[in-house]
Amino acid sequence: MKREVKLPASCVYYQIRLGFVIEEDQSRWLTNKEISDGVIKAIKNKNRITTIGQLEPWEKRP
Asked: How far apart are CA 31 and CA 34, in angstroms?
């Protein structure tokens, strides 16, 4: 489902999608550091849509 966000022209919108990490045969949620580093990097690089970690396969999430 795609949603459109209506913002005033003076606003900048960044979408950060938080996923999980698969290490060897186990998955885990992102750490606070991984999340904050990813958000800072996305804003510095002006990436409007960023996924931190992975979202698929959905059934492998913790």
From this structure: 5
Nearby residues of 54 by Cβ (< 8 Å), 6 or more positions away: 19, 20, 21, 22
Q: Is the peptide bond before 57 cis (omega within 30 degrees of 0)?
A: yes
pLDDT in tens, the chain (62 residues): 677 778 899 998 899 999 999 999 899 999 999 999 999 999 999 999 999 999 999 999 99
| DSSP string for 11-33 | ----EEEE-EEEETTEEEEPPHH
CA atoms within 13 A on the CB side of 4: 1
Residue pointed to by tokens 């998955």: 27
